[in-house]
Write a structure and sequence with these properties.
Blueprint lengths: L6 H12 L12 E2 L12 H12 L17 H14 L3 E5 L2 H11 L6 E5 L4 H8 L4 E5 L4 H13 L6 E6 L11 H10 L3 E5 L24 E6 L9 E5 L1 H10 L1 H4 L6 H16 L1 H22 L8 E7 L1 H13 L2 E2 L1 E3 L9 E6 L6 H17 L3
Parallel strand pairs: 1-10, 3-4, 3-5, 5-6, 6-7
Antiparallel strand pairs: 2-8, 7-8, 9-12, 11-12
Helix pairs in contact: 2-10, 3-10, 4-5, 11-13
């Protein structure tokens, strides 16, 4: 039934379709070159067994309430203790998702009179948190330390009296490049500020023992790190590592922590096991590095794609419709390769985001890239 009240939504969707920007849900199918399950833990027998054992021991599927009511389970607290030790943070808080954690952090911790200086390519969840903050904010050029410095100095010249908050991802989700986190930490120190590092795509994969690119900075006392649990860790939720006083502040002031039902205690048990697997199976990271290098070399030799230096390998197409056509051809060939379009990426930079995981092997990578080269060639403008 058509309703006049729905017409404006239909018009918006039609406009997105004309620009080849309409999104739709599609099932998992084909060889995985899309997921963030970098270490292949999501379907790992050991992880499944740990969750089954937790069920057998009486750990509930649901928390039944917020953490501040009856939803605070022993599994949550055990995970936070173990995660703080693993990632080197003074304290850790477990959230239902990385999105929720970013919104809580940026909407609550920067205060009125502070300045949030964020990389132009930071996660959408950080943008949503920043938009709810009482602090000023400014976007600066991607991975350009001088731009962060200049923005803070300009703010001070104009009377800024609070503390700056520098916000970056350690490994960018669409380009696969790394942030200069140690230089930015020094910058935060010089300006009496804070550094927030979103380790979403590095947690479990990069840094000493898979502890993240910024591991070691947590001892400075002004560095906060976000580690998502639904990517390389294979489960769900997110762990925010930070000083105890800031964790306590979030428990008292972050609305989406206070008023949300707590994450599943079963998932907390699963994350605990995933952290143990990161320690026990360093060969997974070694194998992922090998596959990443293999894929990077093949993409460079066949398509001229510059290596990103990580397991995220973007193949730039530019045109939205063309990126969709090529992705559709790859699906028809049996490979799950997805087109990424604006507004997720900047206008004119539509791409195929190739994700290398332990769910594939070298033969599948070589086959996929060979077929991708043919698909791109057949769709030359």
């Amino acid at each position: 039934m058509n309703s006049p009240a729905l017409a404006r939504y239909e018009a918006t969707l039609a406009g997105l379709a004309r620009k080849s920007r309409l999104r739709a849900l599609s099932p998992q199918q084909g060889v995985d070159f899309t997921s963030n399950d970098y270490l292949g833990l999501a379907n790992a027998p050991r992880l499944k067994a740990a969750i089954a054992a937790a069920i057998e021991s009486g750990v509930p599927a649901g928390a039944g309430g917020s953490r501040l009511l009856r939803g605070n389970h022993a599994e949550h607290e055990a995970l936070e203790t173990e995660a703080a030790a693993f990632f080197g943070s003074e304290k850790a808080l477990y959230f239902g998702s990385g999105f929720s954690a970013n919104v809580a952090l940026f909407s609550s911790l920067p205060q009125r009179g502070d300045l949030i200086v964020h990389d132009a390519l930071i996660h959408a969840s950080a943008h949503d948190g920043i938009s709810a903050s009482k602090a000023q904010s400014v976007s600066v050029s991607h991975n350009h330390v001088e731009s962060f410095d200049r923005a803070i100095r300009e703010w001070r010249r104009n009377g800024g009296k609070g503390h700056p908050w520098i916000a970056v991802e350690s490994l960018y989700s669409m380009d696969g490049d790394k942030a200069p986190v140690f230089e930015l930490a020094d910058l935060a120190d010089r300006h009496d500020g804070f550094l927030v590092v979103d380790e979403a795509h590095a947690s479990g994969v990069l840094g000493p023992g898979g502890r993240g690119i910024a591991f070691g900075l947590e001892n400075r006392g002004n560095v906060l790190m976000l580690h998502t649990c639904g990517k390389a860790l294979g489960v769900s939720g997110a762990l925010l590592g930070l000083p105890t006083v800031l964790a306590d502040y979030l428990v008292n002031r972050a609305r989406n922590f206070i008023y949300s039902t707590a994450p599943s205690p079963l998932m907390a048990a699963g994350v605990r096991e995933a952290l143990r697997m990161i320690v026990d199976a360093p060969e997974r990271r070694t194998e992922l590095e090998k596959l990443k290098n293999f894929a990077s070399e093949r993409l460079h030799s066949l398509l001229g794609v510059r290596p990103s230096g990580s397991q995220i390998l973007p193949v730039m197409i530019g045109d939205n419709a063309r990126s969709l056509r090529i992705a559709d051809r790859m699906h028809a060939e049996g490979f799950d390769v997805r087109a990424i379009r604006p507004p997720t990426v900047p206008e004119g930079t539509a791409r195929l985001r190739i994700s290398i995981t332990l769910n594939v092997d070298e033969d599948q990578i070589a086959d996929m890239i060979q077929r991708l080269a043919v698909a791109i060639e057949k769709d030359r403008p």
